[in-house]
Amino acid sequence: MKDKKELFPVVCCGAEAPQCGPGPEDNKAEDWDSTDRPWQIGTVSTPAGTVNRVATALDRSDVVGTWKARWGVGRMNYRIPPGLYAVGDPDRQSPVLVSANYKMSFDFLRRELSGLDLWLIVIDTKGINVWCAAGKGTFGTAEIVRRIEKVRLHEVVSHRKIILPQLAAPGVAAHEVQKQSGFQVIYGPVRAGDIPAFLQEGGKATPEMRQVRFRLKDRLVLTPVEVATVMKPALFLLAALLGLNFLSVILKGSPLVFTRLWGRTAADFLPFLGAILAGTVLTPALLPYLPGRAFAWKGWLLGVLWALAYMFYLAPGSGPVRTAAHLLFLPAAAAFLAMNFTGSSTYTSLSGVVKEMGFALPAIIIAAGLGAAGLIAAYFL
Amino acid sequence: MKFRYLKNVVTLAFDADRCNGCGTCIEVCPQGVFVPAGKGSVTVADRDACLECGACARNCARGAVSVRPGVGCAYAILMSKLKRKGSCCGDACCP
Ligand code: SF4
Ligand code: SF4
Which CATH number applies to A2-212: 3.40.50.720, 3.40.50.300, 3.40.50.11600, 3.10.129.10? Predict the structure, then answer.
């Protein structure tokens, strides 16, 4: 079953750090020597050679980088060179942690490690976070075994245990790693913040540490990226509305006043803006409180509420055609955007999303198509 | 709070006859789907919470668990159906 061909490519989002960073589009050999390493402070010598020490405090550029990634600004084209690192002053008995070489994963991890003495193996996940890389198999058995050998871990520590983030488990077969490398895999907590407590307890994770969380805070931190992805279509829509207003003024032979044209366009955009926010921000925020289970359904409900509010309070007297078109189009748009949040959520299964799309997508396409036709018609009636 | 997605859709299958109760699946599951069932076995307690990540199947040395792993991301599914190479959730996610 494990080797069964996947129906869909494993493309991902989701879990604690859904920002997966740049992809493996460039498979050329990395020039790690010239990589900037502001996070490095000194070295430690081991029987297997000199090992770089990692700072546990983040500096300003790290914080700015995280912020940019959250908003989808540019790409965090910054990978950590794979290899063995030291945190604090580790010795032969110190624990060994394994991390992805995605900058944000690495930052989130090291920032939790201050005051600890341990070894850190950064494996090459092509700059992708743990969860996504495990799904793709880059955070996998083979890379771990290879890296253990390459850094000569056997010579650095006297024990035979490595601690992996639990979220790497979809990509790693713990028993295979042990068979091939001699190192026993221990799955650490889901969140880096629990590592000190986990180590304190001698490598025991509480059930709480093993569960993925999806609190309001976790959901809201994802919404900027959702909003950022609709920026482009929203600008197209704005241009289309401007064009429609322009055409309708010309065809009706009314005088062309540009300020009025802009004002009308902005007013016409408002209902869509509401639908966008309903799908990208409100649905994620209210996720557990909205009835039903399908994301599209939740988004559709909010879209209907918004369309009704718009119709009764904001723009009564829009005319029957436009009102009907709004009632069709706005909920459909919100439903579609809400459905896209499945990728950022922590609990949607592939089978479930395929099923949801099976009934939601046709309905969305029909409603949006009819709605769009009505909206366009309304300009010329 | 534990979230649950659609009912009765996941491909998770568990074969109690092969299980030796080692508990690895309980450990790796981020959704608490498995619970201990006395000595030498486990049971699927919350099937609908499964997100098909595949961690349990990959780490069960006895081959007692199977699941079709995948990522529940509508955008990625859409893109693959349209045969377009796109990144899920914009640039912010895995291409
Ligand atoms: S990992 Fe496999 S053998 Fe171990 S408890 Fe789970 S199902 Fe049973
Ligand atoms: S596939 Fe993932 S979520 Fe589902 S039961 Fe296995 S470990 Fe848990």
Answer: 3.40.50.11600
